[in-house]
């Protein structure tokens, strides 16, 4: 019987097709229009707006296409909308940054769009093959973006480190998929779960799952697979660092949450203990090393590791509250961290200047709006109410307690208290110190728009967390 392209296939793949066509159009425009960076910028934003409309139009659906390989609407829709907004915000931050740094090339936008397509594929995947394709599409683009400062040694070094370590992680992931297929004779999530109790080769399966956990742990930057994060974030262009720390992390967690969902963790209770250890280690190591950083990009990099630990505590809970908490946390974290990197990209000068705590002395006196927005992002990252970061931590820790992992929630709370020091240290530096220099800082309108989008989302979902929770409850 021949294969037919059904309505479910069309609906499930529609957002992916939209973002892929947009990326191809941008790539063609860049190659045919001389000095067409502004046109590419406008087309990218307009295309993302159309893609967001498509995602929103099918968000209420729950369709499965391509014989159980791709999910459309529902769970996929909330992540696809997140990726589209994160990509659009990154593009808004990037325009003035690229011009300022002298690297305003149109292929930058095409790479961002293709990376977003990979993220959307991961969030929609119901099959390990689709997960692998999504990870590779996203990762190859990020390898190039990390080294977009072509003439800077630090940027080239960060891209090379990311590529080499990412290649090893991909090897683990692919070999794990092969072993799981060898043990279960399938790569489909639901069929794998059904066949776990009747496995003929449980050792082979366990080795495959272990390799899969290693691959995912690298992508989410969990300890001990976190070594690449500080150097890559520091060397990459600042908007790219923000994009990697938010969109790429959310994409990896979206695939991880789908595969290691409640059904599989019930059948494999040992996995819960592994995730608990990864969570605790990430929270402790990330926050301790963040304390010693003087460079804000490196501080945010180690902070990103700690936040991976917080999110993993929700995965460890392996219950509905934990899954809802993870999704809420990923939405909140994406915008508060993207906003922080956005402020850095606006204030950064040539050759990595204006990136240390000392460079932010008295910022309130020079740029009160930027200082206020940065303070808001720091308060939310620290988990101070009523911002979204507080409720994100509350939900994942409450889920851990309800599953019997009270010790993990205690570690999370203590680690959060440690993080308050370095987050509020930046606020103190900005508001309670006199400026030691008087330099003109140009604030682009595109950057302010992106910052306001992030700030509004953080405040709204912090004051009204039910806006996210009500939708996510229907997904599980």
Share in β-strands: under 5%
**Whole-number count of domains:** 1
Extended strand count? 2
Question: Runs with pLDDT <50, length 5+?
Answer: none
Going across the major beta sheet, what is the strand order?
Answer: 1-2
Number of helices: 20
Termini Cα gap: 34 Å
Task: Please state the CA-atom Rg, rounded to the nearest Å.
Answer: 21 Å
Report the mean per-residue pLDDT as an integer: 89
Question: What is the helix fraction of residues, given as a range?
Answer: over 70%
Main attributes?
mainly alpha, two-stranded antiparallel ribbon, 20 helices
Explained architecture:
This protein has 476 residues and is mainly alpha-helical. The chain has one domain. The protein contains 20 helices and two strands. Strands 1-2 form a two-stranded antiparallel ribbon. A hairpin with a 4-residue loop joins strand 1 (63-65) and strand 2. Helix 3 (75-101) packs antiparallel against helix 4 (107-124), helix 13 packs parallel to helix 17 (388-402) and helix 14 (320-347) packs antiparallel against helix 19. The chain starts with 6 loop residues before the first helix and ends with a helix. The relative contact order is 0.09. The model has no long low-confidence stretch (mean pLDDT 89).
